[in-house]
Write a structure and sequence with these properties.
With 101 residues, the protein is an alpha+beta fold. The chain has three helices and five strands, in the order βααββββα. The protein starts with 9 loop residues before the first strand and ends with a helix.
C-alpha cells in the first residue's frame, strides 16, 4: 500500500516461458494464462510453494495439473515474473536450473 492506496500487481512472462506456452495445446495455454493473470495479485495462492535449496532462492512453483509454473516475485514492485512453464517430468527442475536460476 502506498499512502492508503492499494497498488495493483503486475506480471511478466520470460522469453523461455513464452516459448513454453507456444508449444502447448491452445486450450491448456489459455487456461494457464488465465491463472497467471488471476494469481498475480496473490503470488502465495493455492498450490504455490517456495522451491527449497539455496540455488533456488526466490523461486516459487505453482502446480497446474500436470504442468509446473516457476516464477519469481518482486515484493517491493509487486511484479510476478513467470520464468518457465513445463510439464512435470524427472527433467523439469534441471530444465529450470539450466536457465540462469
Amino acid at each position: 500500500m502506498l499512502g492508503g492506496i492499494k497498488m495493483a500487481w503486475g506480471y511478466k512472462v520470460s522469453v523461455e516461458a513464452d516459448e513454453d506456452l507456444s508449444r502447448m495445446p491452445q486450450k491448456i495455454r489459455q487456461h494457464i494464462l488465465h491463472l497467471v493473470r488471476v494469481s498475480a495479485p496473490e503470488p502465495r495462492g493455492k498450490d504455490v510453494i517456495a522451491v527449497s535449496g539455496p540455488e533456488w532462492r526466490g523461486l516459487y512453483r505453482r502446480r497446474i495439473g500436470s504442468y509446473r509454473m516457476f516464477f519469481t516475485v518482486d515484493w517491493e514492485r509487486q511484479i510476478v515474473t513467470v520464468v518457465r512453464i513445463l510439464i512435470r517430468s524427472n527433467k523439469t527442475y534441471r530444465a529450470v536450473k539450466g536457465h540462469g536460476l
